[in-house]
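Handout, section B. The chain below has 450 residues.
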Amino acid sequence: MTLIDLDRAAESDQAAGLRPPPWRYRHAGMLLAAVLMITLGGAAPTASVFWRYLGEIGQVNTAEVPVQLTGDHLYTLASSGVQRELTAYQLDPPRQLWTSEVPLGAGYDPTQGLFGSVTVRRSGDIVLVSEGVTTTALDAEIGAVLWSAPFVVTLLSSGHVGVVVERIFRPGTEYDQASGDPGPLYFSATGVPHTEAPIRTEVRGIDLTTGKTVWTAAPGGSVTVDPARKDPARDDPAAVLITASDRLIRLDGATGRTLAETELPELNGSGPFSGSVIGDVAMVGYQDPPRLVAYDARTLRRLWQRDRPDVEGEVPSCRDVICSGPRSELLVLNPATGDEAWAVYAETDLASRAGSVLETRADTDTPIRLADPLTGRTLADLGGWEQALDGEADGVLVLRRDLSFAAVLPGHHELTFLGTADAAGGDCSADEHHVVCSDGTGLGVWAYRI
């Protein structure tokens, strides 16, 4: 933006004498700043904030599936009888790009509407629509269906390869659901329960453009598969971490080549019960005795172990945060050592957001504060803000209160006021650059930059 000074004439001495002295402005400015800090829930206005209304997308059906923001595009999904339509929109300026019919998911009953969780994800020039155990890939530019298959795809940090898991069970082990017999159950990729663990598991890398297999790994028994976070400071390939019954394996996501591997010990004659990746730590869980063992997700070096206490009542929600204990006495652990870093003595859920830990009320999801991950020290008081919009753990945190919006950038804890939007009480979504809100008839789109 270019500013042009249209008044080049020098100011007269008389006019200068009529100007109030600077100290009079100071009190008014301080009062205005105080009012803004109170009314905006602690969000400070910043001169460099860019907030602009881009326009409206009209007559959008979001009754069944909320809008999906991914890759700077917006997607809506609706069903009508046996048809299902995915519609893509660009956001700046808002306009419809294409509408495509997406094949029905496995076991889908058209009389019941959309069933289960439906997600739209984008990887490069491919859009993936997942519902239950069915995934459909489309060309992001024109919406043409490329392939559809009855499996779930795990996306990696980069590249055009996704990962799928197929569990192979011994014949005759399918569970009779009418019997109601007790005992552990093991589920196939299509959701069929079995009474015995799989005899083997195939982990396959698939080309997202064609759906064809590009590599296969076959660890024994049941496994869990998680994408490994890519370190921006390293030129490491996108990787996948496999927790098997006897070992932990890190594979190159593009080729399936083994990058690192370590044996996992048995406890009381049994191997691991669970596996997950939280940040840069691979967590391996045992059931008897209940124990957590942590490994470096890149090198697979063992970091620490600790007993896992039995939790009575509702299990706490700790998304991308290593925690232990019930909601009423939640302990946050140091990822490097496993030591108790700090505690929360309230019914609180935790999530890693913007480089900090976001605390929200368990009953209402109302944001409480942003805390330092290692000390629990309050970095930002979020009192007065009603909602933290969904987003990636390492992405921008966008907050909403009525018609006002604020944001916290990754690695920072300053709460910056963005602007206001005529959301009319409707649902809102956000990504790294946009806020989209329903106004009852359509969707309003705003762009922001800090």
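Note. Helices lie at 13-18, 22-39. Compare this with the example in section A.
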